[in-house]
Design a protein that fits this description.
This protein is an all-alpha fold and about 200 residues long. The protein has one domain (about 5-200). It has helices at about 5-35, 40-70, 80-105, 105-135, 145-165, 170, 180-200; strands spanning about 175, 175-180. Helix 1 runs antiparallel to helix 2 (about 40-70), helix 2 (about 40-70) packs parallel to helix 4 (about 105-135) and helix 3 runs antiparallel to helix 4 (about 105-135). The two termini are about 35 Å apart.
């Protein structure tokens, strides 16, 4: 049995506090920016609410996945601490990129920012997959297949976000909107679908 390093145990406690702070701030930023937007008509109000709802859903989705995974880790290592901090960095970028993307008028700049946002989300999902794999390696769970399915689902969604950065998904227009945005919208239902298909086998 691997001996737990008390140093990393103390780090874990501080990272847990930092995690709550960063996720809380990320959610608050979206709410503050929503309140600061001037609304002139009902369609603008609906657009603001939908975009805020999407950003809120992303953060809550990641938070649920993260807490479910991190609570299963038996002991921390330098690599796990690094992955935690890296994940929190990408999470803290999400509301910044998302809200800049909403307010950008230039199509060229929007392409760049949306690509960065897709890369940011892909990195988050990939780190979640790696942390889940670590849980499996530590044999910290009883339902092994369940966590293997989570790894597969997270890797697939990470790949979808990374692939959406390709110029092809920006140049294809569907109902007046770049295909990249449709890929993002359907990526999360895809996670659930992959998980359900894997579970039924």
């Amino acid at each position: 049995m691997k001996k737990v390093n008390p140093y990393y145990h103390k780090i874990d406690e501080r990272i847990e506090s930092l995690t709550d702070l960063i996720f809380g701030l990320a959610l608050s930023i979206g709410a503050v920016l929503l309140a600061s937007n001037t609304v002139t008509n009902s369609s603008q109000l609906l657009s603001n609410l939908l975009s805020y709802g999407f950003g809120f859903f992303i953060l809550v989705f990641v938070w649920f996945r993260y807490t479910a995974i991190i609570s299963r880790i038996k002991f921390s290592t330098r690599a796990i601490v690094f992955l935690n901090l890296l994940l929190l960095f990408f999470v803290s970028l999400e509301p910044y990129l998302f809200n800049i993307m909403k307010s950008t008028i230039s199509n060229l700049l929007l392409n760049t920012i949306s690509s960065l946002f897709a890369f940011d989300m892909g990195a988050i999902m990939l780190i979640l997959a790696i942390l889940t794999f670590i849980v499996i390696k530590q044999k910290a769970i009883s339902k092994l297949n369940h966590y293997i399915q989570l790894v597969i689902a997270n890797v697939v969604v990470a790949a979808v976000f990374f692939v959406s950065t390709l110029p092809l998904f920006w140049n294809i227009i569907i109902f007046g909107l770049e295909a990249r945005f449709f890929v993002w919208i359907f990526s999360f239902p895809l996670t659930y679908l992959i998980f359900r298909i894997s579970s039924s086998r």
